[in-house]
Every structure is written in C-alpha cells, then in structure tokens.
Design brief:
This protein has helices at residues 2-35, 39-42, 57-65, 68-99, 103-115, 120-133, 140-165, 168-176, 181-192, 194-210, 213-218, 227-231, 243-278. With 279 residues, it is an all-alpha fold.
Length: 279
C-alpha cells in the first residue's frame, strides 16, 4: 500500500511539473508562432499553432521600422556593466556578512531582504533627482548605476548563502600557511564561489536586460534607449499593436538571455560538482 502511495505521489509530482512547464512554455511558443505568421494569418478568426505559410517579413519589417540593433547594443552594454559591477561589489560584502556574525550583519541581511519590497514608483523620483545633480540623466552610465543599486541587494543575499556553504576550515588552513585575509579570499574562497558568482551575475544581467521602467524614465533620446523601450514603439497611439513585427522583435530580444543561460547552466552545475568534490 505504501509503495502504491509513493508511486502515485511521484506521478502526481511529475504531472504537476509537466503542467508547470507547459504553463511557462505556452507564451514563448505562441510568441514564436506569431513571429513567423503572415498578416493574413494574424487576423484569422481561427488561429493555429503552426503557421501555414511561415514568413520572415515580420523580422524584416521590425528591423526596417525600429533601430533594434542599436537598442540591443545599449541593453547589452548596460546589462554587462551592471552585472560585473554588482558582482565585484557584492562578493567582498557578502564574505564579510557571512563570516562576521554580529547584530550589524543580521540587520544588514534583514535590510537587504526588506529593500526588495520597495516599489519602483517610490524610488524613481529620488533617483531622478540624484542623477540630475550628477548630470547623468539620459546617459547609459546613469542607467547602469541604477541597475547596480537595484541588483545589489539580491546579489548580496544570494552570495551570502554561497559563502556560508564554503567550509571555514579551508580558510583557517590558508591562514595557518601564512596567507592574509585578502589572499585567502582571492585564492581560496572566490574559486569555490565561482558557481554562485556566475549565477549572481546571470541574475543581474537578465534583470538589467529586461528592465523597462527605469530606462523609460531616465533615457530620453532615441539613440540611448534600450531594447525593452524600443519594443513599445510597435504600439500605436491608440494601443493598436503591430503583432507580427512586435512578436518578431520580442522573440529576438529573448534570445540573448536564453542562450546565455543555456551556455552558463552547464558551467554552474559543473562548478557545483567540482566544489563538492574538493570539499
């Protein structure tokens, strides 16, 4: 009886997981289908999953109407810089918060978690005034600073958990051998934190790549706008959307995140296994 119950519970778990995967995949699959449909099929009263006459006209129209390559370059620069800076700042801070157990460290950890609950609207006016005084409005560096500040709390929270998973005995052994605290951090702790650092950088990159609200408010000239902002240009004044070009552009906008995650995911898993063997 218990064996049947265990099998039934496992089957239910697999069924729930499959349903969740279908739920996640449905919007993306429908986006791909729409991107390759001609205008006649987009207006059909009986839409189909697979385009009957697939076409690349939507992609050509999207590139002809909007500067997608320039916007993608702006998004790439902002996302990469924000991810790198956030990781460089968060790594030593996370090390201190994880190793120095004190009330101040606990308060800092609590503040990191609470800060994630702040809505964008409460932050945009102070951020705008600060960037205006620094003459960073309508600049990519101003946007990068905002992305770093926004990604830093969660990056700290992630890395603190990874640091606590590193055995302190390894650092104590390096200290006995005469290594300084900085040398221990660079030579012992950071290599073991590589999977966590990569995962944190990936999170910061995807967050900055997909961000829309800050970019909309802080960037004014078309030459500086990022890809999520440019995608809104496919919407008409009355809310009518050019579904074909919009779907094509949105599909291209999702590719970098998917490719990056597919490439790095194996390295994250391999790094975790290697770290487990070393420890």
């Amino acid at each position: 009886m218990s064996l049947r119950t265990s099998r039934s519970a496992r089957a239910g778990q697999y069924a729930a997981l499959l349903g969740y995967l279908v739920f996640l995949a449905f919007p993306f699959l429908w986006l791909i289908s729409t991107a390759f449909k001609p205008a006649r099929e987009l207006g059909s009263l009986h839409p189909t999953w697979i385009p009957e006459h697939p076409t690349l006209d939507n992609f050509r129209q999207a590139f002809d109407e909007q500067p997608l390559l320039r916007a993608a370059a702006n998004s790439l620069v902002a996302a990469l810089c924000a991810a790198l800076i956030a990781v460089v700042i968060a790594t030593p801070m996370a090390y201190v918060m994880a190793r120095q157990r004190s009330r101040l460290s606990a308060a800092a950890t609590g503040w990191v978690v609470v800060s994630q609950a702040f809505p964008f609207v409460l932050l945009i006016i102070p951020l705008f005034l600060i960037l205006k005084n620094l003459h960073l409005i309508n600049t990519l560096w101003g946007l990068i600073m905002v992305y770093v500040v926004w990604a830093l709390p969660f990056a700290l929270w992630m890395l603190v958990g990874y640091v606590r998973a590193v055995p302190p005995e390894l650092e104590e052994a390096a200290s006995v051998d005469g290594a300084s605290r900085l040398r221990t951090l660079v030579s012992v702790t950071v290599p073991l934190l590589a999977p966590g650092i990569v995962a944190t950088a990936l999170f910061a990159f995807i967050t900055a790549w997909n961000e829309f609200f800050f970019a909309l408010v802080l960037l004014k000239t078309p030459e500086k706008q990022t890809l999520p902002v440019v995608l809104t240009h496919f919407l008409g004044a009355e809310g009518a959307a050019e579904l074909g070009p919009l779907a094509a552009a949105a599909f291209l906008a999702t590719l970098p995140s998917l490719v990056l995650f597919a490439v790095i995911q194996r390295r994250i898993t391999g790094g975790m296994l290697a770290g487990a063997v070393k420890s």
